[in-house]
From TrEMBL:
Domain of life: Bacteria
Keywords, sorted A to Z: Membrane, Signal, Transmembrane, Transmembrane helix
Taxon lineage: Bacteria, Pseudomonadati, Pseudomonadota, Alphaproteobacteria, Hyphomicrobiales
Gene3D superfamilies in alphabetical order: 1.10.287.1260, 2.30.30.60
Name listed for the protein in its UniProt record: Mechanosensitive ion channel
UniProt-listed InterPro entries: LSM_dom_sf (IPR010920), MscS_beta-dom_sf (IPR023408), MscS_channel_2nd (IPR006685)
Leader sequence residues: 1-22
TM helices/strands, residue ranges: 206-227, 248-273, 279-300, 336-355, 361-382
Amino acid sequence: MRLLTIAMALACLVVSGMSAGAQSDSGPATRWFEVDSLNEGLPPTPPFVDRDTPQAMMETFWFAGQDEDWGRAMYTLNLNGVAPEIRSDVAPFLTERLFEVIQRGMSIDWNDYSDRPDALEAMSSSKNPMAGETRRNIRLGVLELQNRPVSIRIERLKPEDGEPVWVFSSETVANINALYEIYGPSRLEQAMPEVLRAPAFWTLKWWEVIALPLVFLLALGAGGVAYKSVARVKRRKVRRIVREILDAVQVPIALLAFVGVFSLVKGFLFTFSGPVSQFLGPLQTLLFVTALALIAVRIVDAILERLVARNMEDLTENEDADTRDLYTNISAIRRMAVVVAILVGGALILIQTNAAQTLGFSLLASAGVIGLILAFAARTLLADIMASLQIAIAKTARIGDAILWQGNWCYVEKIKFTHVQVRSWDERRLIIPVSELVSNTFENWSKQDPTIVKLVELRLDHRADVDALREAFEAFVKDEEDITDKSETKVQVVGHDATGMLVRFVAPAPDPIRGWNMQCRMREHLLASAARLEDTAGGEPGGKAAYFPREREVKIGENMQGAEG
């Protein structure tokens, strides 16, 4: 008989306008909706049912539901959409289901329920569009069905023969059964003993107190299995790049397995209470998005690092300028993908929290305050991230570029969010904060054209024969393969003082590496040539011509004469 009654109720709820009491506006008095009657066919309303204000109505519904007094709680529903002949039979049943849906799908914040009959928003901010306005219909929250969102609303109705009262709207009542299919207890919970379904503390039942740690341990075990499985695959004879990728994604895959198993078990076997679900939902989304983002980013990192490490020598060549652009673009795309993942993850979390609900607004407000605090504390980090994107987009320093940073000749190896890793000529790794690199001047020897002019400066005695050294330099230039344009070589006397004259020897080179080696060979050749010319004194051994300043030799001689005297 009970199943027949329930089936009749489901059929009647499809057409909620069948009730005799039609709802209409109240004309000038817009503080309620007028109806012909309310819940006709139910027994007279008990005196302990208070529906004068939204808060009083919710208290009646909630505390009666906790006591499982459905005969009292059913008066808080607008049952005009149910056929009068079965209304009294299905009212307790629908009330029980609505209580389960609200308890499991929403979080009750009693501060949001007005204790005024007109529900006037007297304490709201002036920015609130409903501030100072009376209410006759209030949305308590939004729950998701399979294909659409459904609002849980209360409304203020005035029957012809009674005072205005607050009740759950007829639209909410019409959706109770559909919502119960999603937010109601699972079959596993229904099969549990009564003692496990009894309230424990807060909004938790005893089965939730037991199930939450068990589900967590099961998910943790799944994560451990995934971690070890990746480790076993790594130990096999796989290609080095595959092993490096597996090593990079081992932890994110374990995290993904943990979140996936936790979500599946929680979704198929258990339906937790509202506050627990609204906490676990955003947390699951956050961990899921984090795991996917880490997997994608680390795969790109492993491939990029492998390519750069293998091709770093080739990246310094002029013909590989396009390759340097490509690697730098990949690095920039990686960082942009991380930013997009963070924004998408944040949006998904806000959606999961149902920001239109009370808890959602509280979380959003808290997130705003916490965000301001973190932004102030991490302003240097944020500046580095923006500077990193600036370097990658403007390409002031590309992966593989040769730069001169504070006297260090380096190659750019990695461009990260907060720092740039460079390799110096003596195989040291320098970590430069990107904000430092952006705000200070540095030389990029690979930008546009890697050719470079190298010079050697010698301080010579005033009596040195510059033409003789010029001939020695021209002989060096003639045989040197790393001088690109031999017509651009120069020998110039660029200065002099009491100690001697300063002679500069200039030669162009195709790139910094070959230029450095050529410069060292050029210095060695010129010093040897100057020493040889000084010994021969223009071709005569023992000549008096000087090429190197004699200041130190004179002082030693004077000191020796003084000592002898």
